[in-house]
């Protein structure tokens, strides 16, 4: 997915960022998370730091701002990902804003090689601490990435303001949290004697198996459905569209939609596994 193109003739300031966030419902004391394209906004006066500071202004001294700081790898190097990982130095590959964010002296970063989160603010340490320490959920990114003890779970539980600057649900990392929870819920509903077998069929890190994969184009369809429900709000930030959804209803409606009609959303292998779980 290409981000919105951006218009360099439009200038965006720190105050513009804070004001736009308030328009989509961000308030003091919030935890605000963002996916972003810096160039989509136009010309940002002050660069990435102005955007970050605008977020901090919107949430105030009792709030927290977070960004995904995911790493990347080629198929040939996947076996080296965890060996090479260093939360202090491994770059974020999901945009210039996220890389600038993790390098800020006031930022802390969770310790997960594939799906780390960096945060600044009152609850930053609490948000990023103990990533994967408990509540493991087996999946293709390893059991810790979207564990019950992870920033991704906390975004849902804290009802974070989950924002998108110039991008859509195409890049919404919470999709993998939803996928993890769908599999977990299916196993929990299955007869106890089946659960170990069902868990063994789920994909793991460098381990083939089934997974509740949402097609990328379907993520945007889900976004439209959530927007119709009023869960996603939008405004303009420079030349970019700023979207914001509260994490708790976003996730819980997404799960409800998927479980109500799995044949519409899920791959065949997962559907076969699901039928086994329900038999």
Give an overview of the whole structure.
This protein is of the alpha/beta class and 279 residues long. The chain is 41% helix and 14% strand. The protein has twelve helices and nine strands. The chain has helices at 14-23, 47-59, 81-84, 96-103, 124-128, 151-157, 174-189, 192-200, 216-228, 247-260, 262-265, 268-278, and strands at residues 11-12, 31-36, 43-44, 64-68, 108-109, 117-121, 161-165, 232-237, 240-246. A seven-stranded mixed beta sheet has the order 5-6-4-2-7-9-8, sandwiched between helices. A two-stranded parallel sheet has the order 1-3. Helix 1 packs across helix 2, helix 2 crosses helix 4 and helix 7 (174-189) packs across helix 10 (247-260). The longest helix has 16 residues, at 174-189. The chain is globular, with a radius of gyration of 19 Å.
Distance between the termini: 38 Å
Number of strands: 9
Helix proportion range: 40-55%
Radius of gyration, taken over Cα atoms and rounded to an integer in Å? 19 Å
Mean pLDDT: 97
Number of DSSP helical runs: 12
Low-confidence stretches: none
How do the helices and strands follow one another from N- to C-terminus? EHEEHEHHEEHHEHHHEEHHH
Percentage beta strand: 5-15%
- Give the strand order of the largest sheet, numbering strands 1, 2, ... along the chain: 5-6-4-2-7-9-8
For the report, how would you describe the main beta sheet?
7 strands, mixed
Question: Per the principal axes of the C-alpha atoms, what is the gross shape?
Answer: globular
Sheet/helix structural class: alpha/beta
């Amino acid at each position: 997915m290409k981000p919105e193109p951006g218009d360099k003739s439009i200038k965006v300031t720190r105050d513009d960022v804070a004001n736009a966030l308030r328009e989509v419902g961000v308030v003091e004391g919030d935890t605000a998370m963002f996916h972003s394209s810096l160039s989509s906004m136009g010309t940002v006066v002050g660069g990435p730091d102005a955007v970050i500071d605008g977020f901090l202004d919107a949430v105030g001294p009792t709030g927290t701002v977070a960004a995904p700081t995911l790493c990347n790898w080629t198929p040939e190097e996947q076996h080296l990902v965890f060996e090479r990982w260093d939360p202090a130095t491994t770059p974020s590959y999901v945009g210039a804003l996220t890389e600038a964010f993790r390098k800020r002296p006031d930022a802390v970063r969770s310790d997960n090689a594939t799906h780390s989160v960096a945060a600044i603010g009152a609850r930053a340490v609490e948000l990023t601490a103990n990533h994967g320490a408990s509540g493991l959920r087996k999946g293709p990114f390893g059991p810790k990435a979207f564990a019950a003890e992870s920033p991704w779970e906390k975004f849902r539980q804290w009802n974070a303001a989950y924002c998108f600057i110039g991008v859509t649900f195409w890049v919404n990392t919470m999709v993998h949290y939803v996928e993890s929870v769908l599999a977990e819920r299916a196993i929990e509903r299955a007869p106890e004697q089946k659960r170990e077998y069902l868990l063994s069929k789920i994909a793991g890190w460098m381990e083939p198996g089934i997974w509740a994969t949402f097609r990328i184009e379907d993520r945007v369809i889900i976004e439209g459905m959530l927007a119709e429900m009023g869960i996603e709000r939008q405004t303009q930030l420079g030349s970019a569209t700023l979207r914001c959804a509260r994490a708790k209803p976003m996730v819980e409606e997404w799960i409800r939609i998927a479980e109500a009609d799995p044949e519409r959303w899920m791959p065949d292998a997962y559907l076969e596994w699901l039928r086994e779980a329900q038999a």
